[in-house]
Each structure stands twice: as C-alpha cells, then as structure tokens.
Amino acid sequence: MSGGMLKQGIAPGRLDAGQYARNFSDLHPALDKHEAHVEADRCYFCFDAPCMNACPTSIDIPMFIREISTDNPLGAAETIFEQNILGGMCARVCPTEQLCEDACVRMEAEGKPVKIGLLQRYATDIAMAEDAQFFTRAPETGKTVAVVGAGPAGLAAAHRLAMHGHSVVVYDARPKAGGLNEYGIASYKTPNGFAQAEVDYITSIGGIEIILGQELGRDLTLDRLVETHDAVFLGVGLGGVNALRAEGEDDGADGLHDAVDFIAELRQSTDLSGLPVGRRVVVIGGGMTAIDAAVQSKLLGAEDVTICYRRGQEHMNASSFEQDLAASKGVSIRHWLQPKRVLSVNGKVAGIELEYTELRDGRLVGMGHLLTLPADQVFKAIGQTLEDETAAGLTLSGGRIETDAEGRTSRAGVWAGGDCVAAGDDLTVTAVAQGRDAAESINRYLSGN
Fold first, then answer.
1. How many alpha carbons lie under 13 Å from residue 304 in its C-beta half-sphere?
2. Model-level pTM?
3. Which of 84, 103, 129 is at the close of a domain?
C-alpha cells in the first residue's frame, strides 16, 4: 500500500505505479486449450438444454460446447455468432451466474456449473484473433436504415440488417462507437481495447457506415431520419441520470459525481495514476453501475468505499457474484439507507447524511433515524433516464419507449431496443437480442412482408 493513501480529499496517484496495472488486469483470465477441453467435457449436452432456454439470445450452448470438445473452436464461434454477434463481449460481462450457468444441470446436481461464459470467450476470442468471417452480405436491396446508437442493440441490429443486404448508417453521439461496452463497463472486465476490436469485427461484414458525434435531439431529428431512410432503429440507451433528491445536491459541491461519467472517464484513460479519487468514497445505488464505480474507486486507491442502498440485499439489481466481488475488494455494502443531505465544507463534499428505511405495507418509507458518513467523494448510481428529446413523438411507458414484441414503436417505420425501451432489463445480452430481432422485423417490413 502506497504512502499516497494518506492523501486527503480527491487526489491522483494514491498507489505505486505498478499496482494500477495489477488492479485493472483481466478479472477472469481466459482458458487455454487444455482447460477449455477439460471444461467442455463436463457438459452433459442436454436435450432441450435449460442453459439454452435461459440465454436471452438463445445460443445453442450444448452445440458450441460439443464443437469445442471436438477441437472445432471456429465452428463453436459460428454457432455463437449466429445468435449473438456480440458473443465475445457477452462472454465477459453477461451475468452467467444468474442465467445460463444457474440453469446448468451440473449446478443443480453438484453446485458447480459448466463454465459456459469462459468457454464462449475461448471460442469467440479465437475467431476474432483469426478474423474468421462467417457471414456474407446478401445482394444489395437499395434500402437504407438509420441506426441511432452504436451500443450493443444498435450494433446487433446493424449487423443483421447488413446481412440482409440493406445499407446501414449508424449515428452515435460519442467520439467512439461501442456505447455501454466502450464507456460503461468496468475496465477490468474488458481490458486491452476489446470493445473497439469487437466493433471492427462486427462492421467488417460491410455495408455499415458509422458517423460519430451525432446526437439525437441536437444534431439529428427523428423526423429527418424517417424522411431520409427507409426505416429507423433507436438503440440510444439512457442518457440522463436520476437525481438523489437530497438537500444540497444542487449546490455544486466539488466531489459529487455521476457514476456513469466516472466509469466513462476511467475507461478512456491512458494513465490510471493520473485519475483522482477520494480517500473516503460513498456510492449511492444498488445496481451494476454502483458496484463498478465502488470497486474501481477501491482499485484506484480509495481507502474507504461504501455502497449505500435504500432497500435490502435481496432487492439489489447487482448480482450476488458482483456483490461478493465488491466485498472481496474491500467495499462495504450497507442496506436500508436513503440519501437525505449532501454535506459540504468550503464548496467541497464532506459527507452524506442518510436516513434508515423500511418497508411498510409494501411501500418504502423513511424511519426518521439518521446516519452521517464522512466522504470526500460521492457517486450517484441510482439509475438513468431517457432524455426527453430522444423519444419526441413516441409513446412512452415508465419513462422508456414502448414497443411491441418485434420492437416496433408507436411510429410507423421506427423500431427501438436496448436500455431505452420499456421491455429492456439493462443487460447487454438482452439489448443484443432486441437489436437482432428488431432487424429481422425491419427486414420483413422492407421486403414487403
């Protein structure tokens, strides 16, 4: 532990130089060939496999594992990519412990499922390293589709539309494509520029143009996109951040930040030692963003990191694995606490006052008992919202875009998928499935079916 740990306030360089690389190395090291074959041999290759039913993209998991076991990793990769073209990223960030691996028969029998996520990574990494191409474009249809948002949903839609021979123009507000995969996921889950490598791999099919720095509501309008393209797919994610609704939140105190901005800055940093972090950090929230912000604060050298969540552990959106990961890194998670007041001294965050909560008749209520936690940095990670101008003229449900089972919105010729839709669940793999399925619906529409 570096002597820099004693620095008060928000400061960079809390750790020795080499510690940053060690802290942010790959969370789950890849399997080598021998390890992959040993793990693949554990699969029962179930008929009507429950793991496949638990996968939002319906990857034929027994098939790709059998292909690995017969030393055909490229065949395994093709099986994966047929259903999920972002299978490489999903292998890294998907909560497999809650989905396919939780449904694994081995899990039920012995509490130790087949490592499906690592096997998926093994196959897809080989395919991408060899630039193996499994899909070709159909003859040009002369149709153009606008895809707004170069995140998981948008990229999945663009690839499937390009396969059908349509020309796709992807617009994104950021300087890089990738969306959540590039800007919103903890660095130790996707090191070494994997998100951009995946974008390049997906777009290598051809017929996809990506235009960056174009924001819907600022540089683009939905009306104009509908006029100039044969169909539109919205995969814009959620741009706004929910407020704490705590006293002092709007006072502009230095040290109160949005967790999503912190994660994005960290993801784009080329020198982690230059990133400032507080000595005492409090994160408000109970989802993946809260866990990622808290763990990465600790890995940057924060001495004391606490997550505060307004409900109980069983209500947290973050998986049990992620909660355990945070605890293993020294993060404290406290439940039944909601923010009441951001405390500041001389324009800088000094702490946060919280109120104990409980459920009464199914409603969350404050108990009137207060707790103060000292902090020089507080992160808001209590969810994001759809920005008003993004969905102008579309029917919303619960603050997100309402769609039917095929991803069609209330406006003819406009589809949507991913976090911005009411049917979303903030998972990369679900966004991929929605983008893929909307693309199939768009293709039927453009084909006159």
1. 14
2. 0.94
3. 129
